[in-house]
DNA sequence: CGTAACTTTGACCTAAGTCAAGGCGCGTGG
DNA sequence: CCACGCGCCTTGACTTAGGTCAAAGTTACG
């Protein structure tokens, strides 16, 4: 049975901004159900034009796009609270694939109602723009990372981002956070080869900066790793709207 | 003297979607003036929180961010019709620098009015989201390019994108389009070194696929270059809203 | 137990980076 | 009016970070 938005397990987490009562009411109407998928299931396909929008409630996934030469770029790792499908709604058709990596539960919205949401509820329309702009910002950072940083820096950057995100989500436990992906996924996210990713991770492990086993990433001192990444100047995950 | 939005030289270009009369009226109120800056002028600074938003009317520029190690990532090339400052408005403060590369004319809007725009005019709010989502999509492509393509492919990709953009804008003349940047800028956009960029451009020139002199890029057969880039599956610049 | 999906390691290779030196056009000031 | 300085492009010689190939561990599962 579906959770009521008012009792959403995510809302209230430090990461998410509070929502006014009337906006919550609107959300409730907008939400059409919940979807649970097994690990490995594709949620949205590149090119497809899904009639649904989602918010990840539980579990993790991957956004990726595949080039015509067969190579794959992981665009982002999906964690609870992420909104999926805005591109497909606003442009026409999805521009990347989203796939569940663990079992996931998703909040389902009706795409057709998006317009009525924008029309009827400016706060939520603003939040939507906020989300898109934030995603844009993230991709800018990722681009700068892949374009300008070395392998160690890239990996350190990614691990720090994930750790911070999980901390803000409240799913971190003493520097230990869920990271249920394969090394290949991380490699594809950072434009590195699997082998080099593996070796670089080994070096970070030796230096006691990060270890990652069995889907658990553990970064004892985020600050140290952030210094390795050369990300001193960066803002640590700010509060975001939850739709 | 400022151009009236109704006579905007851009509106009406094939690239841009038409705007309803009442939305135009709204735009007119939203617009507070015009700004002309000389080549080389920074328009928005990383970290700053400019009280203005802009739409590029004439001229070209660069969006870039600088990492703490001093390396620079060019995030995008700015052409007429691009909206500047959404990030700064919605998040807090600009996340990258925007700099004029030629003399530019910008349409100026009052950031404080953004909220009233979202509230009072759902069409425009939707367009705003559209713009952010499109920018996000572009950055995803760029990320995939820098992460997964070789040097030749990257450069070919960038040149094709610019050419297509200019064609849609109606500022292309038989495959010749304005591209007033330095090789260093292109290199920084693609995560390549200046030297390698130069040599790769030379090779494309020899193969008669693209030549670029004195700020003019000329791509005789976009399709051929697109094939070199490995971008067969890609959508050729769709119609976008102009704000 | 066998096999399939990941990770790890070692040996070798190459695309792209770095360094360094010239070239070319333009603006400034002597 | 010339020269010299500066910003940008070009080229060649050499180096290297990271890629590719290949094989052996490790688990998990049927």
TrEMBL record, chains A, B:
InterPro entries referenced in this protein's UniProt entry, alphabetically: cNMP-bd_dom (IPR000595), cNMP-bd_dom_sf (IPR018490), HTH_CRP (IPR012318), RmlC-like_jellyroll (IPR014710), WH-like_DNA-bd_sf (IPR036388), WH_DNA-bd_sf (IPR036390)
Protein name: CRP-like cAMP-binding protein
Gene3D superfamilies: Jelly Rolls, Winged helix-like DNA-binding domain superfamily/Winged helix DNA-binding domain
GO biological process, one term: regulation of DNA-templated transcription
The organism's place on the tree of life at top rank: Bacteria
Keyword line: DNA-binding, Transcription, Transcription regulation
Residues annotated as domain HTH crp-type: 149-223
Molecular functions (GO terms): DNA binding
Pfam families linked: cNMP_binding, HTH_Crp_2
Record flagged with keyword Cytoplasm: no
Classification via PROSITE patterns: HTH_CRP_2
């Amino acid at each position: 049975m579906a959770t009521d938005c008012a009792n959403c397990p995510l809302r209230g987490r430090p990461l998410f901004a509070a929502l006014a009562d009337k906006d919550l009411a609107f959300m409730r109407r907008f939400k059409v159900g919940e979807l649970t998928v097994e690990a490995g299931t594709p949620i949205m396909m590149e090119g497809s034009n899904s009639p649904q929008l989602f918010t990840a409630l539980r579990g993790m996934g991957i956004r990726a796009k595949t080039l015509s030469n067969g190579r794959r770029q992981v665009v982002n790792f999906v964690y609870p609270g992420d909104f999926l499908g805005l591109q497909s709604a606003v442009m026409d058709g999805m521009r990347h694939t989203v796939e569940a990596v663990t079992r996931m539960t998703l909040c389902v919205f009706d795409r057709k109602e998006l317009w009525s949401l924008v029309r009827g509820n400016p706060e939520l329309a603003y939040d939507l723009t906020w989300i898109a702009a934030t995603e844009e910002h993230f991709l800018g950072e990722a681009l700068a990372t892949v374009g300008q940083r070395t392998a160690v820096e890239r990996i350190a950057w990614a691990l720090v981002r994930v750790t911070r995100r999980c901390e803000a989500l409240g799913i971190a436990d003493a520097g230990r956070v869920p990271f249920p992906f394969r090394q290949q996924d991380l490699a594809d996210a950072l434009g590195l080869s699997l082998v080099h990713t593996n070796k670089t991770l080994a070096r970070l492990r030796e230096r006691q900066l990060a270890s990652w086993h069995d889907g658990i990433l553990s970064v004892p001192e985020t600050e140290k790793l952030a210094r390795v990444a050369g990300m001193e100047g960066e803002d640590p995950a700010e509060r975001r709207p939850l739709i």
